[in-house]
Amino acid sequence: MKELFKNKKFVILWLAQAASGLGSTFATFTLAWLVYEMTGSKVAMGSVWVSFMLPNIIIQLFAGPFLDRWDRKKVMIFSEWSRAATFLILFIFLSLNLVQAWQLFIVSIAIGIAQPIFYPASMAYVADILPKEKLIKGNSLLEGTGQVMMLLGPTLGGLLISFFGIEAVLLILIISLGASGALLMKNPSSKKRRIEKKESWYFQFKEGLQFYRVYPVLLGVGLMMMLINFSSGAAQPMFLPYITDELGGTAFQYGLFTSAFSFGMLAGTLLTGTLKEPKNRKRVMLGALFLNGVLFLGLAWTPFYWLALVISFGQGLFAIIFNINNTTLYQRRVPEHLRGRVFSVRILLAQAGIPFGAALGGLFAQIFSIPILFTVLGCLIALTTIVCWFIPIFQKLNDQDVVNLETNEGAEKI
């Protein structure tokens, strides 16, 4: 690890990514707080998530194949400074008491366009500045720092709002994103890459889609995740009104609740890293999702804030256990030359349900209530995993094969 800190270019990237992580966490927190404070509407909370997620999904889906053709350093700087400029305009309008609710949706769309290109470019840039033997340690440090920012950000944001107001959070996130871009200016541009053949996005996406016909269990997992993420998309915008209205909490308690989920993810990462790879991946993946659904039922009806914290921690724990095993599933089964294309389809499948969930969840909570919404979502997740357990195709989650697309003759043993 000491060698990493002797690498000036990596240290700059590490600091820039830490600042970006804090700024991104503050951005999500600030927009949610402002929208609910100005409107008090659960429908508006869901709608602002839709306005963020739709451009986010589209940019991730279409930009991926082209990031290799652009200067990654410039891509990262553009992402940071465009977000900083957007929030600076919001800060000025807020200081002049000119902010209206519709403007927050414009901000959300702008952030949804700029944010998703930073991390793919950052992860690719690491390979430009570190030798291969140091990539694992470098990625571990960057990922660990990101988790720390996710832990600290919401709690710190809630604390700042409670004592200094929303303007303080906005100012810090503007400085964080601006400083991140300024730091990256000190690093060299990414290495020039020679592209033998420029294939269209459509061609690459179509080739990735064809893989799911050869290995349909991945399509099954993707469709299952679409439904699960529909539930997550419906729930996440409602966490702020859930804490403040249902449990009578403060901004600080909302931040702590969000951090509890991140802390659960960190604990799940450590747990998964210390245990051996499961022999029965089907049991682990579907079991983790089922327990997540059960915890939603507990979240729906608990009158105690401290218990909601524990449940949030548990949801983060089981969510990351599923995600790690799902990622491993793809890495084991997708040939290296197709991973980028298959992952583009995976993004579409996994995230397509989120904006629809956010839109319908806010409307449902407005008409009925948040506890009833969480009850429905918990039952939906639990029932989905039970149904998937009895579908024969999901038994292939335990296969240890890599599909051989070149010969198209089944699978090749690892």
From TrEMBL:
It is found in: Cell membrane. GO terms for cellular component: plasma membrane. PROSITE patterns: MFS. Keywords: Cell membrane, Membrane, Transmembrane, Transmembrane helix, Transport. GO terms for molecular function: transmembrane transporter activity. The keyword Transport applies. Residues 217-414 form the Major facilitator superfamily (MFS) profile domain. It is a multi-pass membrane protein. The chain crosses the membrane at residues 12-36, 48-67, 87-113, 159-184, 211-231, 251-272, 284-301, 307-324, 345-364, 370-391. It holds the Pfam family MFS_3. This is Multidrug transporter. SUPFAM superfamilies: MFS general substrate transporter.
